[in-house]
Amino acid sequence: MSDEAKAFMAIGESFAVHETVNHSSREYVRDTVHVNSVEGFNARVRRTIAGVFHHISPELADLYFHEIGFRWSQRIVIGQAVRKSRSGKESMKTLWSRVPPALQLVQVFRAATGRQMRRSPNGGIIIKSAVAVFG
Q: Where in the chain are the domains?
């Protein structure tokens, strides 16, 4: 999903389905098509750079973005709250929480079945190719 920007239209051709909303005609949501998730993720990237990483080198940018993406995908909805604007308009806000680290390991171990797991030099986990099993 994206808006009508030309750069996004070209990228959308790489996917099986690409829906757009037309912000210039004041269309922001159409059924399940919206760009709120993308804008939220981009805001998370900006806040993480400003508050945690402070600087991202071009050589290591992929690693930083993978870390931010991992944190983004390891969250769950815990509820909703009603928010009021200054003008009194009410809206629903989704409340998020982290997936507990113990439950995150389930995903790591599921991907590691039949593979070698090694610690990387920088303290991460490397999952190597399938282990040969002799029966």
A: 2-98
